[in-house]
Amino acid sequence: MVRRADFLAANRGRRAPMPGFVLLVRERGDGDPAMRYGITVTKKIGGAVIRNRMKRRFRVLARELLPTLGIAGADHVLIAREGGIERDFALLRGELEKALGKIMTRPVDAPRDPSRRKAKSSGTRAPAKSR
């Protein structure tokens, strides 16, 4: 996946947060059984060398596990989290297997619980308490 619109669409799908990454999965519904994957590693994670190392690790994991555990006809996005680069590769593999299992048990395109969303601020603050 390379188009921004595909990443934004995946963000509206199911998610499985793990300590080293967040997995997003969204079925495309276009009839194409091909699985696609995308990787996002922001500058918050580290410099270019660190980000590239993390992307290489994610690429290997995706190529190993998605053909057998992924959802056909879906987009899979791995978003790196801080501390993911320090995690052992075998641990990351186990977390991705667990995340894919979580995704498979959730209903397709289930709406997220709106009560868990943070309320947007109206822009006005309550007056400060005086002591």
Automatic annotation (TrEMBL):
SUPFAM superfamilies: Ribosomal protein S5 domain 2-like. Residues 103-131 are annotated as: Disordered. It catalyses: Endonucleolytic cleavage of RNA, removing 5'-extranucleotides from tRNA precursor. InterPro entries: Ribosomal_Su5_D2-typ_SF, Ribsml_uS5_D2-typ_fold_subgr, RNase_P. Its EC number is 3.1.26.5. GO terms for cellular component: ribonuclease P complex. GO terms for molecular function: 3'-tRNA processing endoribonuclease activity; ribonuclease P activity; tRNA binding. It comes from the Bacteria. It is an enzyme of class 3 (hydrolase). Keywords: Endonuclease, Hydrolase, Nuclease, RNA-binding, tRNA processing. Transmembrane segments: none annotated. GO terms for biological process: tRNA 5'-leader removal. RNaseP catalyzes the removal of the 5'-leader sequence from pre-tRNA to produce the mature 5'-terminus. It can also cleave other RNA substrates such as 4.5S RNA. The protein component plays an auxiliary but essential role in vivo by binding to the 5'-leader sequence and broadening the substrate specificity of the ribozyme. Consists of a catalytic RNA component (M1 or rnpB) and a protein subunit. Belongs to the RnpA family. PANTHER family: RIBONUCLEASE P PROTEIN COMPONENT. This is Ribonuclease P protein component. It comes from Sphingobium lactosutens DS20. The gene is rnpA.
